[in-house]
Amino acid sequence: MKKCLLTGSSGFIGLALRKKLTEKGFIVKTIHHNYLHQQKKLKQIISAFSPNYIFHLATYGNKYSQNDDLEIIRANIIATVNLLYATANINYEAFINTGSSSEYGTKSKQMSESDSLDTDTFYGVTKASATLLCRAYAKKYSKPVVTTRPFSVYGPHDDINKFIQVAIRSFQDNSILKLASGVHDWIYVDDYINGILKVAKNAQTLKGRAVNIGTGIQSTNHEVIKTLEKIFRKKIKIIEINRVRIYDTNISWKADNSLLKSLGWLPKYSLKRGLMKTMNEDNK
């Protein structure tokens, strides 16, 4: 029976991945983020478990409230390096590092893995640094280390302060929604998880690379609201505000997912279907 090591298991995506892996019959061991900074203990835990797959999802700085610059560096760079070297003697089939579409910075076109990394935020810079370190590590030691770059992942049980969660509650409660302009490539969490697993399956041929996981379809925040209006069959009062995060953009934010599609992956959820499933699962 295959074994998987998982960091970031208490997060929204981590919980979904853990559930999926368990359903597939994998033995899953989770690592608390504190252990990622205790190198001796971390290596002991990993050596005893000897995982076939490593999924590194632990991160900091992707939420509006996570603004400690030093912790962003510590969590996104140092923890990643510690995990790479703690697993150095493990003959794993895949080490999947989690990057971010924020690594690209602002682009005027669809974002491709071959694009330059032009981010100027601490979160984006640290994620880009970790991606490049993973690439160098994979090349030097010939290890199947691959970085996935998620676009805007959403779904049930996400952080209550995330845009889609807030928007759905506004429709349910008939409350006023403060709406900033912006564009996103929204990808339902199940599609993202399937993308991660597809990358893991092909890690030997992808070693050292980064792989976008997004739908390739861009939606404005206002288009999300229009989709919710169709689902709820009503409108709510909206107050227009300035952008909330410094890296939000109105220009372009969508994935070139041709690499992932070449592996046989396709998204199954349209925005409308994903929003409906989010609502249904959260109401259970």
Walk me through this protein's architecture.
There is one protein chain. The chain is an alpha/beta fold and 284 residues long. The protein folds into 2 domains: 3-153 and 188-215 and 255-262, Rossmann fold (3-Layer(aba) Sandwich), CATH 3.40.50.720; 155-183 and 217-254 and 269-282, Alpha-Beta Complex (UDP-galactose 4-epimerase, domain 1). The protein is 42% helix and 17% strand. The chain contains 10 helices and 12 strands. The strands form 4 sheets. The chain has a 6-stranded parallel beta sheet, with helices on both faces. β4 (94-98), α4 (122-141) and β5 (145-150) form a beta-alpha-beta unit. The longest helix has 20 residues, at 122-141. It is globular and about 55 Å long.
Summarize the structure.
This protein is of the alpha/beta class and 284 residues long. Helices cover 42% and strands 17% of the residues.
Strand content: 15-25%
Mind describing the biggest β-sheet?
Answer: 6 strands, parallel
Strand order of the largest sheet: 2-1-3-4-5-10
Give the CA-based shape: globular
Taking all Cα atoms into account, the compactness measure Rg is 19 Å
CATH superfamily of the largest domain: NAD(P)-binding Rossmann-like Domain
Order of helices and strands: EHEHEHEHEEHEEEHHEEHEHH
* Number of alpha- plus pi-helical segments: 10
Question: What is the CATH-assigned architecture of the largest domain?
Answer: 3-Layer(aba) Sandwich
Name of the level-1 CATH class of the largest domain: Alpha Beta
The number of E-state strands comes to: 12
CATH topological fold name of the largest domain: Rossmann fold
Structural class: alpha/beta
Low-confidence stretches: none
- Classify the helix fraction into a percent range: 40-55%
Kindly give the count of domains: 2
Can you give the mean pLDDT?
Answer: 94
Distance between the termini: 32 Å
